[in-house]
Amino acid sequence: MLKKIVFVLLSALILSGVCFAQEDPAKKQMEETTPAVAQEQPAKEQMEDTTPAVAQVQPSLVLEEIHICTAVEDRQPSGVGTVFPDDLDKIYCFTKISGAEDTTYVNHVWYFGNDEIARVRLPIKAKSWRTWSSKKLHMLLGNGHVEIVSESGDILGKAEFEIQAAEKAEEVGKTEKTGVSEEASGAPKGQ
């Protein structure tokens, strides 16, 4: 038993001499792989200590807000809706994303019908970040959507929109914005 302990201690001394000649990460790895007898650990615990460290996974990005709108003013969406007239110059997709530890990117992927019409790569530079993209409306009437896609390809969320003839879109817009039914709008105040 004494020979085994002396052998382990000599091995540890030789290995520590090698560690001094290497950079700090190698020294740390050598310390973690010192034989179990010198550390007085069971073999199972020793194996756990020598397994390579798993790379940290970046926290997941979270899409906190997504809006299709007619403008972005002071970093806030303006003219938010789902139905837009065909006479607008362009519409915007506004997003607020959280969870980034370091600078990362997301894509705003614009679709009209089932066809991808644009892909805009946008940086996310803080734990909570607002960003937006826009699309000129020189397209036909119909439905579209924007998917928010992380660098790894995960779809974080989606917002749908519809482009209608200007007259029809204005009627829908008035109804959606007021939220008041025909019956309620004729009721006297105070009731």
- Outline the low-pLDDT stretches: 18-47, 51-56, 175-191
Strand order of the largest sheet: 4-10-9-6-7
Order of helices and strands: HHHHEEEEEEEEEEHH
User: Radius of gyration, Cα only, in angstroms?
Assistant: 30 Å
Quickly count the helices: 6
Number of strands: 10
Head-to-tail CA distance between termini: 96 Å
Helical percentage = 25-40%
Structure classification: alpha+beta
Q: How would you describe this structure to a colleague?
A:
The chain is of the alpha+beta class and 191 residues long. The protein folds into 2 domains: 2-50; 62-178, Sandwich (Immunoglobulin-like). It has helices at residues 2-21, 24-32, 36-39, 43-50, 166-178, 182-185, and strands spanning 62-69, 71-73, 76-78, 83-85, 90-98, 104-112, 115-124, 128-136, 142-150, 155-164. The strands form 3 sheets. Strands 4-10-9-6-7 form a 5-stranded mixed β-sheet. A 3-stranded antiparallel β-sheet has the order 1-5-8, with no helix packed on it. A two-stranded antiparallel sheet has the order 2-3. Strand 2 (71-73) and strand 3 (76-78) form a beta hairpin. Helix 1 (2-21) runs antiparallel to helix 2. The N and C termini lie far apart (96 Å). Mean pLDDT is 74; it is low at 18-47, 51-56 and 175-191.
